[in-house]
Amino acid sequence: MRALTTDLPGVLIIEPVVHGDERGFFFESYHAQKHAALGIPGPFVQDNHSRSIASTIRGLHLQVRRPQGKLVRALQGEIFDVAVDVRLGSPTFGKWVGVTLAADSFRQLYVPAGFAHGFSVLSPWAEVEYKCTEFYDPGDELGVAWDDPELAIGWGVEAPLLSARDQSHPPLHEVLDRLPRFSTVV
User: Fold this and answer.
1) I want to staple 56 with a disulfide (CB 3.0 to 4.6 A). Which of 19, 48, 115, 121 is the partner?
2) CA 84 to chain centre
3) Element holding 45 (H helix, E strand)
4) Is 139 helix (H, G, I), strand (E, B) or coil?
5) What is the three-class DSSP state of 164?
């Protein structure tokens, strides 16, 4: 297993060792000690699983008082997974990285606490699973507009499908008073 760095410190692409033969494959999708050695602290307390059709965008989501770190992977299909640094005072505030995650590549993306997260579905459908370092708290949730022109995220879909909630999120500059402060601990 190895970790590839991205342009945002703390956001990591994880490539597991996959053992395959004519019967199929086997790999460790999570190993606490190995992931910790790569810089993914845990512990993880909740797993989420979603299925979405092509052109769906889910996000951008975060929790403020109880921020969640997320370890994301595509179980079926292909997604474009996005992490946006929304930590006030961070040298990379407002910057984003996107990574294509596909079931057949086995790659994972680690999105640290303090980052907004979202993804778009590039295949006819996709199933996504992600581990979270904090429990979901609807009262602590905050959303940022998927199409915020200042972020200018290239989602890779032409006619996005969004939930009513994701359609109503404000741009980043309208939620500055609710965002977490940057900490040097990543």
Assistant:
1) 121
2) 9
3) none
4) helix
5) helix
Q: What is the CA radius of gyration of the chain?
A: 16
What is the C-alpha to C-alpha distance for residues 166 and 12, in angstroms, rounded to an integer?
25
Tens of pLDDT, residues 44-86 = 999 999 999 999 999 999 999 999 999 999 999 999 999 999 9
pLDDT tens string 5-57:
999 999 999 999 999 999 999 999 999 999 999 999 889 999 999 999 999 99
pTM of the predicted model, to two decimals? 0.95
Instruction: Please count the CA atoms within 13 angstroms of the CA of 138 that sit on its side-chain side.
Output: 1
CA angle 121, 123, 124 (to 5 degrees): 105
- Do the beta carbons of residue 82 and residue 118 sit within 8 Å? yes
Q: Which residues in 88-172 belong to E strands, given as ranges?
A: 96-102, 108-111, 115-121, 125-132, 141-143
Q: Would you name the residues annotated as active-site residues?
A: 61, 130
Assess contact for 17 and 112: CB atoms under 8 A: no
Longest dimension (CA), the chain: 55
Check if the beta carbon of residue 146 is closer than 8 Å to that of residue 118. yes
Decide if 175 contacts 159 (C-beta within 8 A).
no
Residues 6+ apart with CB under 8 A from 119: 57, 58, 59, 72, 79, 80, 81, 82, 101, 128
Nearest to 11 by CA among 59, 65, 80, 82: 82
